Amino acid sequence: MPAVSPPPVNVLMVGTGEYTTGYVHDQASTSDKGAGVVAITLFDLRRRGHIGHLHLAGTTGRKFPGIRAHLEKVIGQRYANLSTQCRTYPEDSVGSNPLAYRLALEALEPGDAVIVSTPDDTHFDIALDAVERGLHVLVAKPIVKTLAQHLALKQAADDHDVVVAMEVHKRWDPIYRDARDQIRKLGAFNYFSSYMSQPKSQLETFRRWAGKSSDISYYLNAHHIDFNVWAVGDSFRPKWVSATSAEGVARSRGIPTEDTISLHVVWANGDRTQQAIADYTASWIAPRGEVHSQQRFHYLATEGEIRVDQAHRGYHFTTDAQGYHSPNPLFMKYEPDEKGEFAGQSGYGYQSISAFIEAVLAIREGRATVGDANQTLAGIRDTLPVTAILEAGRISLDQDRRQVEILSDSNGDPAQLR
C-alpha cells in the first residue's frame, strides 16, 4: 500500500491587530501594513495546499464582524482565488475574553502550529500554553520580555520536542542575509551601530500597550540586536548593557513611555581577549516621511566594515494621495500579478512566516527534526542573547541608567542578569 501523507498543518493566529490583519482601532491601518502580514501569508499558504484549517483568536469577539469585512475588502476582493475564511475566537457576542486563545488551542492537534502577534507581555503565557499541548510556536519579536521567561520556555520546548522561534523578518531580507554572510569573512567583531524608527502615528496605533506592556526598544531594537547576534554567532557574547532615553512627545499625549531608547552593549569573545561595542537606537516619534520605518546599521570588524540603509533602495514614486514615497516590495508585495492573484511570496515578510510553516511540515512528514528547524529559524536557544540585552536595557532605564551584567552558563549562553 502507498504511504499515507500526513494531513496539512492547521494553524492558529493569536492576535488580531496590525501585523496579523492590518485592522487597527476599527479601521484599516494607515501604515504600510494595511492588509496585514500574517493572515494574508497564511491565506496564500492555504491556497497553495500547505495549510489545512485556519483559526484566529483575539480578546474581543465584537471586533470580528469588522475584521472579517476588512479582510474581505483588502484581501478577498482584491486577489483572485484567495479566501479569507477562518474560524474566530471568542464568539462575536463576547465583549472580552483574554483567554479565548485557549478555546482555539483545543481545536488543534499536537504537531499543529501557533503564530503569536500580541502585546509583548502576553507572549510567554500564550506560547507556554501552546508548547504544553505539543504545538510548534512562532512568536513575533521580542519572543518574551525576560530572560527567566525565555529560559523557562526553552526548557518547555525541549521537554515537548517542539519548535519555538522568533518571527524576525530581517533574517530573510536578501540584503541583510548577504551582509550576514559577508560579516563571516571580515575578522573579529569590533563595533555595531543601528537606528530604526517609526512615525508618531504608531504611538496611537499602539496606545493601548505602549509604556504599559512594552516599549520601543523591545518593539524595534529587537530587529538589529537579533541581526547582530545572528551575524556573530557564538564567537562573541553580550556582557554589559546600559541604556539612555529621550522623553516628551509620548508623555505629552498621555502615553507613559519613552520616545527614543538607546542601548549600549559591551560584547566579548569566549576567553575575553577581544572586546566589541554596540549601540542600538529605536524611536517612534519620527515625522511621517518617504518610508514608514527608517532602518540602517553600520558594522565594523577587524578586516572590513558594512553599511546598510534598508529604507532607501533606489525605488521611489510620487502620487497625489501619498506624495513622495519610497516603497519596499521586498518586504511584502501587495500589488496583484497580471492574473489578479497575490504575488508576494518572495517578500521577506512572507518568507519569515512560510519558513516556519515549511519547518513544521518537514517535521510532520519526517523530513527534518526540531533541531534542524532551530538551525533554520531564529530558534529559542539562539535568541537568548536578544532577550538578555532587551531586558538588561529595561532594567538599566528603570534603575537610573546603571550598567547591567549578563552572566553566562557553561555553554556561554545568557543565564542571569546582575
Structural class: alpha/beta
In helices, the fraction of residues equals 25-40%
CATH topology of the largest domain: Dihydrodipicolinate Reductase, domain 2
CATH superfamily of the largest domain: Dihydrodipicolinate Reductase, domain 2
Give the C-level CATH assignment of the largest domain: Alpha Beta
Account of the 3D structure:
The chain is an alpha/beta fold and 418 residues long. It folds into two domains: 9-168 and 343-376, 3-Layer(aba) Sandwich (Rossmann fold), CATH 3.40.50; 171-340 and 383-417, Dihydrodipicolinate Reductase, domain 2 (2-Layer Sandwich). Helix content is 31%, strand content 25%. The protein has 13 helices and 18 strands. The strands form four sheets. The protein has an eight-stranded mixed sheet with strand order 14-13-9-12-11-10-17-18. A six-stranded parallel sheet has the order 5-4-1-6-7-8, sandwiched between helices. A two-stranded antiparallel sheet has the order 2-3. Helix 5 packs parallel to helix 6 (147-160) and helix 9 (216-232) crosses helix 13. The model has no long low-confidence stretch (mean pLDDT 94).
